Every structure is written in structure tokens, then in C-alpha cells.
Amino acid sequence: MKVCKGNIFNPDVRKQVVILATTNGTIYKSSGGPRLVMGGGAAKGLLDALPGIDLTLARNIMEHGRKEQNGSWSYGVAYGHKSLGMAWRYFGGFQTKVAVSEDSTLEIISNSVKVLEEHIKDMGKNGDREWIWKINYPGIGLGGLKREQVEPLISHLPDCVEFYLL
Predict the structure, then answer these.
(1) Do the Cβ atoms of 82 and 119 come closer than 8 Å?
(2) What's the pTM?
(3) Is the Cβ–Cβ distance between 116 and 76 less than 8 Å?
(4) Which end of the chain has fewer CB within 10 Å, C or N?
(5) CA dihedral of residues 24, 30, 32, 37 (deg, nearest 10)
């Protein structure tokens, strides 16, 4: 795991990059279909950069995630993808909280880390060992946690995972 200064959305010349913004588990109905709430922080930055990603992620979450009794969703990591010239970019969410109005929890971040580890292994099995995973540092800022609380959950991740601080 690497900690980097900067913005996950800054241009990156590496060919295979996964950009994950921290997200919540709230999906709402709209006339265009279900959408993931992405109203603040890095999630809003991702939605601003890729209009419609909230719809794509909601569909992915509803297909692969688990609906909880309170109506929220648990999913860990969800994706959409886009080809940008010769480079492939996957864009998605790294769940840190249940609802946009709540703080992030260490339990949810821990679950998302486990799901991320599975995805890293799966992509490696397909011979795609050069993937870089760019994620804004989870749980801090709008999440309400301190970096010192989150670091033990993510420090063991491989160097292909980069956590960004502004």
C-alpha cells in the first residue's frame, strides 16, 4: 500500500487503472432507474466526472451486493468501466458507510478491504498484474474517522493500491 498526495482524478499515464471513490450503501429510485447516492466528497467528484456512474454502480450493487433490513446495501466494492483511448479505466465505489448521513465505520471499511483483496487476486489470475488501484483515503473527511483509526485496516495491502490524500 502506498499513501500519495493528490487527487485520484488527476490524469494518469499508466495503462490499467482502477479509480475507486469512497461511497455509501444508499440507493434511491429515480425516473431513469435506481441510483447510488453520490452527493459529497470523492463520490460527488466521480459523479461530476462521469455522469450516470451512479446508475451503473447502483445496478452493479443490486446485482452483486446484499440488501440489509434497513434498506441499505452492503457491497464492499462496485464497478463501472470505460475505455479511454488505449488505456482502460475502471471506475467505482469503495464502501465506507451505510448512509450518506452517517459516519464511516471500521467494520464496513474492513469488509470493503476484504472485497478489494479478492478483486486484486481475481485480476491477477487473469494475467492482469499491472493494475493500479487509486482510492481516496477511506473514512476520513466526510466519513468522520481519523487516519490513525483506518491505517491498521489498509496497511497490509500491496503497493498496487494507492490511497490518496488531498
Answers:
(1) no
(2) 0.93
(3) yes
(4) C
(5) -20
CB 162 within 8 A of CB 2: yes
Asked if residue 164 lies in contact with residue 8, where contact means CB atoms within 8 angstroms, the answer is: yes
The topology (CATH level 3) of 2-165 is: Leucine Aminopeptidase, subunit E; domain 1 (3.40.220)
Question: pLDDT by residue (tens digit) across 32-72?
Answer: 999 999 999 999 999 998 899 999 999 999 999 999 999 99
Would you list the domain boundaries of the chain? Answer: 2-165
Q: How many Å apart are CA 159 and CA 144, to the nearest integer?
A: 26
Picking from 163, 160, 164, 166, the residue whose alpha carbon sits closest to that of residue 17 is: 160
Q: What angle do CA 131, 155, 104 make, to 5 degrees?
A: 95
Which residues of the chain fall short of a pLDDT of 50? none
